[in-house]
Amino acid sequence: MFSKRVRRNAIGLASALASGAILAVPASAPGADWVIPGRGFGHGVGMSQYGAYGFAKHGRDYRFILSHYYRHTRLTHSADTPIRVLLATPPDSVGFTRATKACGKRLEARRDYAFERSGGDILLRRDGGHKLANCGHAGTATGDRWIQVEGKGTYRGKLKATATSHELLAINVVKLDAYARGVVANEMSSSWPQDALRAQAVAARSYALASSAGGAYDVYDDTRSQVYGGKGSETPETNKACRRTSDQVLRYRKQVATTYFFSTSGGQTESIQYGFPGSQPVPYLKSVKDPYDDLSPYHKWKVRYSQGEMESRLDGLFKGKLRKIEVLKRGDSPRIVSARIVGSRGSSKVSGLALQSRLGLRSTWAKFRKS
Asked: Which of 71, 171, 314, 333 could serve as 268's disulfide partner, Cβ 3.0–4.6 Å?
């Protein structure tokens, strides 16, 4: 079973949709044997980003937006605590520049350096390979304002390199508010209303504080957690939204809320126990109506497949000729929790998530019609 982070499959997709990026989608063959109409984009749990956009367009402020999607939570403040973001896992080394100090050595900001894994230790090297220091199990580099990480981008805070038995962990240690700046710019278009961006900023901080991806780091920099691009990805409008909500997070009782979010709901969000099967119900992650989500291009969608394409995609889940797909259980929204793939000589039960993956659908909110 996938982890919840992996299952948050639409976290970065709303940003791509908002910016007009072209996404690979299933082909719609004319005269297809199967028609699959559906709604939404993503797992459906928590805040719909296009729904938040719609609420903001209709004059609702970010406090209302957050209270709508995360019921029973309250807006509070948190310390500007450091967040450890995994940037990369290179086998041997990570290069960087703009650093002024690392492993007790003063560095020249204009020069290139690298942390290199050597057994269980981290070595600090200057460009050209000259060894400057053995940093021990981990090495940390700091700059006056930011650090440029080779192959990744520009980041506020510190670069930390930790050695494991088989790879190097390149981690950005950054304060919570600065982290939010690097997330919001990658999760929503900067052209969206300020109140949508502010809701995203609060959700980004809350999710980071409630997460624990691994022992050496807290979150990933991609859709396994939430998309983080560092300083180099920030925009004036998204930074403004972060400043206006500085240090704000959502709590449920005394705990910071795990504020899942996704692209498009299709008109209704999903309760966590159905969106992430196996999860326990959570009072603030329940299905709610999403009246303005229709601003999304994927509020409604339709996919068509031939009989052969369907049988190929569902190979191994039935025997004989594919007859039908029978939905066995839906969640609090119409998203599929489980279904049966019915063949002429044998059938099997699958989860809605497995069916979505096999058929390349944008969500589990779907119906199946055979022409």
From this structure: 333
